[in-house]
Amino acid sequence: MQPKFIRETRCFKVSRVFPTDVNNHNTLFGGKLMAYIDDIASISVSKLCRATAVTASTDSVDFLQPIRPSDSVSLESFITHTGTSSMEVFVKVIREDMRTGDRTIAATAFLTFVALDDDNRPIPVPGVVPETDEEKKLFETAEYRTQLRKHRREESKKFADYLLTKYPWE
């Protein structure tokens, strides 16, 4: 399978922040931003594997700066690394004050998706080739994040054994 340049998976989304998009702190709802992140990440994934894919995990979402109604929010996503059937996606969130033009990184996120065949079994995906300094840095540090992800998943499985499944009224 021929690898693809990371730039071939790059996607962009820009939205204005409206009053209905904010919480009682007058900042963009975190859940709304997370939906934007998952949406754009899924498009990058489709550009790479051209198959059905599912979100296996939202590895991290770091909210760094508040996003206000006077801002626009821009998301940029691209695949940073692949496994056999898994794809790590990076999403960069930029807030821009529409009055001043000031731009800052408002959030960053890493998600993992898995490509599936028609029977919902994992299928191989192409590798990716970084070109820019940003892409190279994310590609070079992906193995560390993969190890953290595997460790966290194992810990989550162990923890799940202690959780109850009964409803409180049972």
UniProtKB/TrEMBL annotation:
Protein keywords: Hydrolase
InterPro entries on file: Cytosol_ACT, HOTDOG_ACOT, HotDog_dom_sf, Thioestr_dom
Domain called HotDog ACOT-type: residue spans: 7-119
Hydrolase in keyword set: yes
Family per record: Belongs to the acyl coenzyme A hydrolase family.
UniProt-listed PANTHER family: ACYL COENZYME A THIOESTER HYDROLASE, CYTOSOLIC ACYL COENZYME A THIOESTER HYDROLASE
Protein's name according to its UniProt entry: Acyl-CoA thioesterase
Organism encoding this protein: Paenibacillus artemisiicola
